Amino acid sequence: MVTLKEVAKRAGVSIATVSNVLHGSVPVSEERRKRVLKVIHELDYHPNLIARSLKSKHSRMIGLVIPDICNPFFPQLARGAEDAAWECGYSLVIFNTDDQVDRELQALNTLRSRRIDGVLLVTCAGGGASEGAKKMADAEIPIVALDRKLAGFDCDSVLVDNRAGARECVRSMIQAGHKRIAIICGPSSIHNARERLQGYKDALRAADLKEDPALIRYGDYRHESGYRCALELLKRERAPDAIFASNGTMGQGLLEAIAEVGALLPGKFAIGSFDDVRYTASVKLPIFSVSQPVYQIGYAGSKLLIRRLEGEAKDEKPIHLKLPTVFKGPKLQSSSKMPAKAT
Q1: Which residues of 35-61 are buried (b: 16+ CB within 10 A; e: fewer)?
Q2: Averaged over 275-301, what is the pLDDT?
Q3: Model confidence at 331: pLDDT above 60
Q4: Which terminus of the chain faces fewer neighbouring Cβ atoms within 10 Å, N or C?
Q5: CB neighbours of 283 closer than 8 A, spacing ≥ 6?
Q6: Residue 157 has pLDDT above 60, yes or no
Q7: Hey, how many other C-beta atoms are within 10 angstroms of the C-beta on 20?
Q8: pLDDT above 50 (res 339)
Q9: Higher pLDDT, 200 or 88
Q10: Is residue 209 part of a domain?
Q11: Same domain for 175 and 138
Q12: Does 238 share its domain with 310?
């Protein structure tokens, strides 16, 4: 590996001059700067960032820990976080926990041992993040929770107004004439799943509709659970006339189940989803949805974390940002019956 000393020797300058060119800490004449940069390019020199971080105690890197890279929600969130980090001169490294507590703790421990500057964390359903988060705090590594609050540990966060978003969507479904609205919830251990369920209940209560426990199912925010829960609801003797899925991935599972049962659906049926769902041509039904500012969650979280790292956010208490959601009315106003069972 090419060293700083070799660059200085080839360029005919001191090591300090090369360092000043790289860091811009002390002005260097234009002629020397160009000569040093030419040699850096010729020798393909790359600074030893590990050694630099040990000296400065800053790596200019932040970590992002997410539970499911296959969920379309999280790549959008990661893009926002990376763009904000890049703008501020930081790099982003991503860990996928597959919604497993052990993997989440391992990711946090790895980031801590690698001297990461700070962490953006979307905690997994198991709720084991508080242990790792406390160790981060002990090591003076700031954490910003994204999308989901951490159980048992208060830190900076960027969330959306889950309760209001779910309430507005279900209320609109009721106003469209649907009275037996079922819900496919996320895991009860996750804060935003509980909030969305509460928003659903708020809408029923405001419309004087009785809450029916038989119309409440719990999934895990993944496609298969949305499909399974939807089939259970649709095959009931007294099926619902609408189903609200608590996230887009379960919403896709709901669409698959609807395509399968086909003509078994009631004459007037609607779909609701917290998150946008990819429209399926064979499902000709109204789709009510709650759109989240996914990119902004990641972007705002990264900016907040960097403000902490740069000393610009001096609040001693955690800062909690809550972003609004946007309700989208039915994509298809037709209430036609479904075609026969899809093949």
Answers
A1: bbeebbeeeebeeeeeeebeeeeebeb
A2: 85
A3: no
A4: C
A5: 255, 258, 259, 271, 338
A6: yes
A7: 18
A8: no
A9: 200
A10: yes
A11: no
A12: no
pLDDT, residue 127, reads 63
Helix H, strand E, coil C: the string for 132-175 is: HHHHHHHCCCCEEEECCCCCCCCCEEEEECHHHHHHHHHHHHHH
Do the domain assignments include residue 333? Answer: no
**CA separation for the pair 117, 64 (Å, rounded):** 11
Higher per-residue confidence, 290 vs 49: 290
User: 299 and 154, same structural domain?
Assistant: yes
Q: What is the CATH number of the domain that holds 149?
A: 3.40.50.2300
Contacts of 44 (CB under 8 A, 6+ apart): 2
Q: Are strands 287-291 and 326-328 parallel, antiparallel or unpaired?
A: antiparallel
Confidence of residue 202 (pLDDT cuts 50, 70, 90): very high
Specify the higher pLDDT residue, 22 or 167.
167
Q: Quick check: helix, strand or coil at residue 43?
A: helix
Neighbours of 257 (CB within 10 A): 21
Closest residue by Cα to residue 273 from 284, 250, 262, 289: 289
Residue 49 host element (H or E): helix 49-56
Domain end among 251, 270, 292:
292
Chain centre to alpha carbon of residue 315:
24
Distance, in Å, from the CA atom of 247 to the CA atom of 322, rounded to the nearest integer, reads: 18
Residue 87 CA: distances (Å) to CA of 76, 128, 296: 17, 32, 14
Residues 167 and 287 in one domain: yes
* Sign of the four-CA dihedral 124, 68, 113, 25: negative
